UniProtKB/TrEMBL annotation:
This is Lytic murein transglycosylase. Residues 1-21 form the signal peptide. It comes from Bradyrhizobium erythrophlei. Keywords: Signal. It holds the Pfam family SLT_2. One of its GO terms (molecular function) is peptidoglycan lytic transglycosylase activity. Residues 28-236 form the Transglycosylase SLT domain. InterPro entries: Lysozyme-like_dom_sf (IPR023346), MltB-like (IPR043426), MltB_2 (IPR011970), SLT_2 (IPR031304).
Length: 268
């Protein structure tokens, strides 16, 4: 999934609203200092900035990966879905529907997003929380990508959002670990989406998209609901719900895969 998300990230500029505009390129340490100054102006504490960005280093491997992945996704829907939705994942998803039936009923009632869509996304993104959620320090990734001038506004906005996640106590620094574009958690939220759509559904006082299944599924539902997803309406290609899923992922192939997987989970 990381490869696919990077291939389409260039289309996702609307996911983050840049909150500061440090000059990209040049000396990396000077760039981080400028970012830190802008973050202070945006209300991030000195303690949070020092914890997150003190000693942060540029990751040339992240840049190399990003350059390899952009524009490389060429599979057809049939080719893609055959590698992503097999009998094992379908059976696993059906087990999750049973295991979390009560939770999913509560989320459906509040957000109006059907359980099979949520479980399909969950399965595709991290194999229901058991798969790879990324192993890279989020601040190292985002500082590296923000310093790079190709999409600096996008990633400067994501960096500010990541600092907000840390400052409000949703995740400790050791758990700010993610993928090659800074995606976090079991359904791979970019930090800006984490801030915008994250829900504390288990009531523990923080939004934990790495460990709390309740927060993960409710936050995913909140994203879709906020963007117009309607319970009981079709969600296949060409429908209004299919368009609502565009905020999740711009790629038609990926949204078709979500819809296909969801249908398989409920025996359609």
């Amino acid at each position: 999934m990381l490869k696919f998300r990077l291939a389409t990230l260039a289309c996702a500029l609307t996911l983050a609203t840049p909150a500061f505009a440090a000059r990209c390129g040049g000396d990396f340490r000077a760039f981080v200092q400028n970012i830190s100054t802008e973050a202070t102006s945006a209300g991030i504490s000195q303690a949070t900035i020092a914890e997150a960005l003190g000693g942060v280093q540029q990751d040339l491997g992240v840049l190399a990966f990003d350059r390899r992945q952009r524009g490389t996704f060429t599979k057809t829907f049939e080719q893609y879905v055959s590698t992503r939705v097999g009998s094992g994942r379908i059976n696993g998803g059906r087990a999750m529907l049973q295991r979390y039936a009560g939770l999913l009923s509560s989320i459906e009632a509040k957000y109006g997003v059907p359980r099979q869509i949520l479980v399909a996304i969950w399965g595709l993104e991290s194999d229901f929380g058991k798969g790879d959620m990324g192993k890279l320090p989020v601040f190292r990734v985002l500082a590296t990508m923000a310093h790079d001038c190709r999409r600096t506004e996008l990633f400067q906005g994501e960096l500010l959002a990541a600092l907000q996640i840390l400052q409000r106590g949703d995740l400790p620094l050791r758990e700010m670990i993610g993928a090659y574009a800074g995606e976090i958690g079991q359904t791979q939220f970019l930090p800006s989406s984490y801030i915008k759509y994250g829900v504390d559904f288990d009531g523990d006082g923080r939004v934990d998209l790495r460990h709390s299944v309740a927060d993960v599924l409710a936050s995913t539902a909140n994203l879709l609901h906020t963007n117009g997803f309607k319970m009981g309406a079709p969600y296949g290609e060409g429908s209004a719900n299919f368009e609502a899923m565009r905020e999740w992922n711009h790629a038609v192939i990926y949204r078709k895969t979500i819809a296909y997987f969801a249908d398989q989970l409920v025996g359609r």
